[in-house]
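Summary of Year 1 activities. Much of the first year was spent building the evaluation harness for sequence design. The harness presents a backbone, in tokenized form, and records the residue chosen at every position. We chose the following record to illustrate the format because it has been used consistently in internal testing since the harness was completed.
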């Protein structure tokens, strides 16, 4: 996938679980999995090209457009959790998960 041009994508659909797995080549390969939307319809977006030093049109699958449209809430929650993180240090993995859930609950409250 790295050798393909920018904007190329590959899609695999699992009919049993109704999942669409899309791998899209932007600056790096990006893999997204969704039960909601797949790669179609493909739209054009503008991306900066270092070689020609201007913006070029690149194909963008619908799953990437939806992710970019709705990712703001997750990023905001991660930022707020990182500001007020519970100071737990442990070697046991389940204590770390408990601390993360505690941080999410405090943030949501």
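For this record, the design step produced the sequence shown next.
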């Amino acid at each position: 996938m790295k050798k393909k041009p920018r904007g190329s994508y590959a899609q695999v659909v699992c009919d049993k679980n109704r999942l669409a797995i899309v791998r899209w080549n932007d600056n790096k390969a990006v893999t997204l999995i969704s039960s909601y939307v797949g790669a179609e319809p493909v739209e054009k977006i503008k991306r900066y090209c270092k070689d020609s030093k201007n913006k070029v049109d690149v194909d963008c699958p619908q799953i990437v457009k939806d992710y970019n449209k709705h990712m703001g809430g997750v990023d905001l929650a991660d930022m707020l959790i990182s500001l007020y993180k519970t100071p737990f240090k442990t070697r046991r993995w389940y204590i770390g998960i408990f601390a993360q859930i505690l941080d999410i609950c405090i943030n949501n409250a």
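The two ends are 43 Å apart (CA to CA). Quantitative recovery figures across the full test set are reported in Table 2.
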